[in-house]
Amino acid sequence: MSAGYACLSVDEIRLSMEEKGTRVILAADLFTISEISHILNEVGRHICMLKTHVDGIHDFDLDRWMDEVVRPARKMGILLFEDRKFADIGHVSKIQMLGHQRIADWADVVTAHRISGPDIVEGIHDAWRECGRRGSVAVLAQMSSSGNLLDEEYCRKVVDSCRGMDGVCGFIGNGSNPSNISELRSLVGSDKMILTPGINLNSGEARMGQRYGHPREAIAAGSDAVIVGSGIIRNAEPLAAAKKYAEETSA
After folding, report:
1. Catalytic: 244?
2. Which of 74, 170, 186, 194 sits 20 to 30 Å CA-CA off 16?
3. DSSP code per residue over the chain
4. Residue 4 resides in a domain
């Protein structure tokens, strides 16, 4: 990372999770601001980050987003995690961070692919710097969807090229396969985080190529935090479900 970038450090993110007492990242894959605000307020005590796909929100309005989602999350000590999966050159990624959704203004962590080159991390952090904020990038090293092209060789190249970057807090791993997480942890070491999607207590809920693993197994294999979506937001009792996932990851 170039000199002059003040990044959100791995230690700060881990401390934030420790203070919340949970390793659950809520994947709020919902379509309206009200829906996301509602689930945040319902389960916020049991999650450490709120993961969003802001470009999928049908009624996105920046003022409402800041008032109904960002500020309440901040009050609860929850980090904002925008799963944008940036994949372009650094300059374009900076433009996207500063676009009409103003991701740089509120996201603490964003996801990115490494395939376009290392300058993608530079571009993202340059956007945060323009906003007077700090954040960090989680780079995709593995995916949990069936048939994806992020094979072992690609994973190794991604980790080798990003492990020493201050602006990268860690890597996205395959939560549906504990052996994949263990292999990734051996490549990553202890200085960077591993965040794992593909987590559900009920593996039978998999759909559209997604595969699921158990949260306890993911943590035991080396994941720092598990990303849970349908297991909470589609549960008839989201609060009880979020509490259960938090308990499973701390056991």
Report:
1. no
2. 186
3. --TT--PPPHHHHHHHHHHHT--EEEE---SSHHHHHHHHHHHGGG-SEEEE-GGG-TT--HHHHIIIIIHHHHHTTPEEEEEEEE-S-HHHHHHHHTSTT-HHHH-SEEEE-STT-THHHHHHHHHHHHTT---EEEEES---BTT-S--HHHHHHHHHHHTT-TTEEEEE--TT-HHHHHHHHHHH-SSSEEEE--B-S-GGG--TTB--B-HHHHHHHT-SEEEESHHHHTSSSHHHHHHHHHHHHH-
4. no
Catalytic pick among 20, 85, 157, 192: 85
Q: What is the pTM of this model?
A: 0.95
pLDDT in tens, 34-46: 999 999 999 999 9
Q: Supply the CATH number for residue 108's domain.
A: 3.20.20.70
